[in-house]
Amino acid sequence: MKKIQPQAGQESVWDYPRPPRLEPCSKRIRIVSSGLVLADSVRTLRLLETSHPPSYYIPPEDVNLDLLERNRQTSSYCEFKGEAAYFDLKAGVKNVAWFYPIPSKAYAALVNHLAFYPARVMLQTGDGCFVDDELVTPQAGNFYGGWITSDVVGPFKGEAGTQGW
Fold it and tell me: Do residues 123 and 131 make contact, with C-beta atoms less than 8 angstroms apart?
């Protein structure tokens, strides 16, 4: 796959670093599922990693934790950030969000911040993940949680033909 050349105001995920870079983000990040606001924040951390659209990590104070339930059966491991734990949506969606209870030292700022899978919160019309009121497109692939907006270009990991990357 050929890198898409970014236009003015756009970023290419191929210019993102590896290991990933974590940066503060003041854009409004909002997550709606089943018509309910799961999160609304202007104090997120944006994670940028080569070939992946950004993921947004939301401080727990800006998440409606009453709508979520900790999933104690699921975990995963990232070579950079450490062991992730998961939350289910009480409405019946498994692993809707992940977080790092004890992240690696380089990503200590992520502690207990939640990142959401856009595809898993979209249960009905009007639901989804929003960046400054733009509805994001979920990153392809069941494992990935990146948020594709009009200001990010790929190709993105997870799309057809990217399995070997």
Answer: no
Q: Are 121 and 128 contacting, i.e. CB atoms less than 8 angstroms apart?
A: yes
**Topology (CATH level 3) of domain 11-147:** 2.170.150
Rg (CA), the chain: 15
* 86: alpha, beta or left? (left if phi > 0; alpha if psi -120 to 50): beta
Instruction: Select from 21, 15, 24, 30 the least CA-distant residue to 43.
Output: 24
Beta strands at 152-153 and 11-12: parallel, antiparallel or unpaired: parallel
Pure H helices in the chain = 118-121
Lowest mean pLDDT among 53-62, 68-77, 118-127: 118-127
Domain boundaries, the chain: 11-147
- For 88, the token pair is 């289910």
CB-CB contact of 145 with 3 (8 Å) = no
The model's pLDDT over 1-54, given as tens digits with 9 standing for 90+, comes to 789 999 999 999 999 999 999 999 999 999 999 899 999 999 999 999 999 999
Q: How far apart are CA 35 and CA 23, in angstroms?
A: 29
The torsion angles phi and psi of 13, rounded to 5 degrees, stand at: -65, -15
At residue 96, φ and ψ (nearest 5 deg) are: -80, -25
